[in-house]
Amino acid sequence: MQPTRRAFLGGGLGLLGLGVAGCATSPAAPSSAAPTSSGPSRLLVVGAPARALTRDPARALDVESFRLIRQVFETLLGVDADTGAPTPRLAERHEESDGGRLHTFHLVSGVVFDDGEPCDAAAVVANIERWAAAPAPVDGTVAPPSSFVSAFGGYAGDADSAFAGVEARGELEVRLRLHSPRRHLAAALASPAFAISSPASWDRTVDVDGSEVTTPAGTGPYRWADAAETAELTRAHPGASGATILVPSARHRGSDPAAYPVAVQAWGRASVRLRELRRGTADVIDVVAPGQLRPLVEAGTQVLPRDPLGVLYVGMNLDHPRVRSQYLRQAIAYAVDRPRIAGSDVFLEGTRLAHDLVPPSLGVGDEEARRYDVNPGRAREFLRLAGYDGEPLEFLYPAGTARPSLPEPERVYAMVARDLGAVGMHIVPVPVPEDQDYLHAVVSRPTRALHLMGRTGDYRDPHAFLEPFARSGRAETGYRNPRVVEDVDAAAAETDDDTRRALFRRVVRAMALDLPALPLVYPISALATGPRVASYPTSPQLDEPFSRVRLTEG
Asked: Domain Solute-binding protein family: where (predicted)?
């Protein structure tokens, strides 16, 4: 019997993965060819699958903004490349006391933002106070999800917030006080959403394609290129035209100084990314599609898979008059052939069927949680119980773009919509163009019924996946379950590992029954590198510093 196309290609990826396994879990080893000096003659070009939506860490929620923010800014704590655990970064030492209610950060001395301002305790306090302040309400808009609310339970002054205050003690000590302990806080503070920027630069803007874009200063290995630098690099490298340009920061004091300028291009179509890699325009392309593996393998291209730390799901709007029926949500769960989706050639080999909204590696999956096997007959019966009579249901999905958790949105939508249509549901496609903020499009459209969404873990803790459904990301699904909120908060304060896992498992069971979202798969993502790239540091959390990329001579 001949092997299937997917098995063959998956085998090719597996072999390549064995060859680069160290890149995925450990610091990138220097190649035998030493990196060359920076300058217009050397430029690393990265082909991203979508555009970044902001340069301001305090406003960022999307993967592509985080990709850039990780290069320009630093957090108080970092991420260990081997374990994913928090490590020192801007804070050389972090201490917990008072039963986890006091966090003391001892800052590295002499750190300077790229605008020349000191990164001292006063600057860090200003950042934390900025995060903690609730945004001013804007008429007619829905409040977006908040990383601060997810980590702390609410903004400063909110009844549910654990945040009690922050103060500077001298120039290099910051004390963060909590009303109640937050077990996940150290890990959460390594997220790029909590990167430290220069308060003096918060109102600084630059012209980007005719729009004024807020462009704060950071302490990272890179800084945003100015207009003259962008023009110089674009003249020397026409392939950088229209890209976001990062240049090495002379003020960075880290152990991984940036070696080359970087151009990050947003190429939404997988075919365009592959074409630019083949042409030699791109050195790295992210989100490799399974159909591209054969030509990449045959050309001897390095394909670097990431360990999975994400979930793709169908979000459901529980504020919708039809979707608020649990019978209808269960009908959706029984109708969608999720094993077929997981085994399709949309996803790379190693992608697994998802039963829960938390990746298995985080250890809170529950075999007793409600499971939904494919059963169209049962789906039709639940539609009858829901009183559904063919009313149109809007289904949003991103178009012309990709995510590490969602390589081909149009095809995933088509598979899900076909299954729902087969049991009698009237699905109305609502593609969201690549030039729109997809999350904003979802939460600001009250008539939506369903949407595709992926979540990648910014830090390795179940809280990062479950809390947004319970509270901070409620605008996405309209899910309200006070018991779930209580259990999430109890887990946040729990010091015993077994008790904490039990609380999270109870949340998993509740969400499997309530169905604010239907998990589809735990996706594997991968990137490909051109011949100039000697090593590239992959990460499940997408914490991939360009300063650790090594190019060959030539």
From this structure: 86-474
